[in-house]
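Chapter review. Work through the record for Riboflavin biosynthesis protein RibD before attempting the end-of-chapter questions.
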Amino acid sequence: MSTATRAATDAAAMRRALELAERGPARGVNPRVGCVILSPDGRPLAEGWHRGAGTPHAEVDALERLGPDGARGTTAVVTLEPCNHTGRTGPCAQALIAAGVARVVYAVDDPGDHSAGGARTLRDAGIETEAGLLADEVEAFLDDWLFAARHRRPRITVKWASSLDGRVAAPDGSSRWITGPEARADVHRRRTAADAIAVGTGTVLADDPSLTARDADGSLLDAQPVPVVFGRREVPAGAALERHPHDLLRFTGDDLVADLAELQRRGIRSLFIEGGPTLASAFLAAGLADELLVYLAPAVIGGPRTAVADVGVTTIADTLRYDFADLVRLGDDLLVVARPRTAAHPDPSTREKA
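Structure tokens for Riboflavin biosynthesis protein RibD:
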């Protein structure tokens, strides 16, 4: 097989592996991974994908379809570097070696502390191993999982809805509704895309939120974020959160980095911060807001109830700076999407590794 033909065959197999990966569960501890086994002359022999924690990984799923000696001399094309550790299942790198695979092509390195290193193990066993094929496409597909694995915490989105002058409620505390139905619908679409949604206990006591993702008539959408509450005060008996489809997760919020690491350990890769100002400000001050969603209504309210409280800025030179990523018109309202300038917002979870 010529070099050009092999490259084209590998790319086609990788795209098929990515299609297979999409069949896996969108949420959970493990990434969605797909694998295609090719014969020495480039014919697809078997396919596999990971179906969730505790089930065979994609490589093993594909190998099992070939029988004891069916994979000898073949090429395994897989979206993520074969794992190198024993968890609920054995290491995929060793399974590929035992099966007699001659060559492995993968897209993205595994960033896990314990699971990384499979490529080195394969090369040490004399297996030709190539990395980086269609890496950009696979990186985009595994975006939240890779972020959580690399940073040891979920990707954090902080959201608020306010008037033009930054107020989230009137002086008497009333806040429904500052923004219109189009903006509220957009919020629910973004809720359903997140693994978890969080508020502080102050918001629980003041608003009794359900923290569910709903459509315009109030019906629950199919995918629901896990509800999370930060703070020491108790959630009242009979609170709307008790009727959420998922069990409530509670954290004191005394150590956000540790709390977020625990969420990542539980398979939470994206966290949607809904409020209130105290919790939003804590994440902003800690440099833990990876994205801001600010829904602005064309209104002025005035008064003390601002969207953000103290974030540790005492002089203009310390201002937390963001770049506009998007501006979206939603009915009468405007959605501002902003992301931090990296140098001005170091990630606390990576400071020890820097």
